[in-house]
Structure formats: C-alpha cells, structure tokens
Design goal:
Helix 4 packs across helix 5. 30% of the residues are buried. The protein is built from 5 helices and 4 strands, in the order ββαβαβααα. The protein has one domain: Nucleotidyltransferase, domain 5, CATH 3.30.420. It is α+β, with helices and mostly antiparallel strands. The strands form 2 sheets. The protein has a two-stranded antiparallel ribbon. The protein has a two-stranded parallel sheet with strand order 3-4. The protein is 48% helix and 17% strand.
Length: 149
C-alpha cells in the first residue's frame, strides 16, 4: 500500500500476481481509522501487509494487521524504487511517479488484472510496493521479465 489519507491499495495472490488495485480516498484520518477494517474484510485472508510510509496513519493499519495476525513490513519509497527504477528515473518525485505508472501498467498486463480506465499515482505505486513485497517474501523469485532492467 501507498499510505496516505488517499491510499493506494494492491492485492497480490500467493502466485505473485496482482489480483486487484485501487485508490481509496478516506478524506481524513478519522475516516481512515473507521475504514481500515472494511479494507481488511474485503481483502480476504491476508498473509502480509507492506506499507510505504509511516507515522500515525501507518500505526492504524499496523494495529489492525496485528489484531488479525497479518505480518507487517514498513518501507520507504526508496526501497521499491531502487529495485524497479533506474537512478536517472529517480531524480525527481514527479519523474519517478511517471515511470511507476508505466511499470504498474506492465504488472497489470503481466498479471492479467483488469486494465484501468485511469490509474492514479497512489495505486500505481501501491502495485510496485506490492510487487516489491512478493519478491521479498519469496512468492516470486524475480520480477516479471518485462520489468527486469
């Protein structure tokens, strides 16, 4: 997940393929706190939650994950960007977001997930955070061929 009041979410199966992705605008921290349970409920039997970001909002997600017995890994944008983006593509946040959008669309195609009519940058980044996670937990041995650089 790409953490924020507007949160990017991506769910992967144990085969390492993307199942669904979306952007959810909670509008406020209070509404996020109330909405986290519903996101977990609709996500089924989760094994891992990978969060890009930190602070109070991350703590809300972490508490719910712990209550449900879901392992949590908190990372920074630099963790997944260093794996999927070239150094020249990381020179500015806006440039990294454009490249992340292209890479996320490739993951969507590779996974056979429904193609987006539009793809918000938080959902695109959540797709790459999730891919980073499935690689780290060993659900995939390597990134999809299209993403190897």
């Amino acid at each position: 997940m790409d953490l924020g009041v507007r949160t990017g979410l991506a769910l992967y199966g144990r085969d390492g393929r993307l199942i669904w992705y979306r952007s959810k605008n909670f509008g406020s921290a209070a509404r996020l706190k109330r909405g986290v349970k519903a996101v977990f409920d609709e996500s089924g039997d989760l094994a891992w939650l990978v969060i890009e970001g930190g602070g109070h909002l991350a703590e809300i997600w972490e508490r719910e994950a712990e209550w449900r017995g879901v392992a949590v890994r908190q990372i920074s944008a630099g963790d997944w960007r260093s794996q999927f983006l070239l150094p020249r593509e990381q020179q500015s946040g806006s440039q990294a977001k454009r490249v992340a959008d292209d890479l996320a669309r490739q993951v969507i195609d590779w996974s056979g997930a429904p193609r987006p009519t539009s793809l918000r940058h938080d959902a695109a980044e959540a797709i790459l955070v999730g891919l980073w996670g499935v690689l780290k937990v060993g659900w995939l041995d390597a990134p999809p061929e299209k993403l190897r650089r």
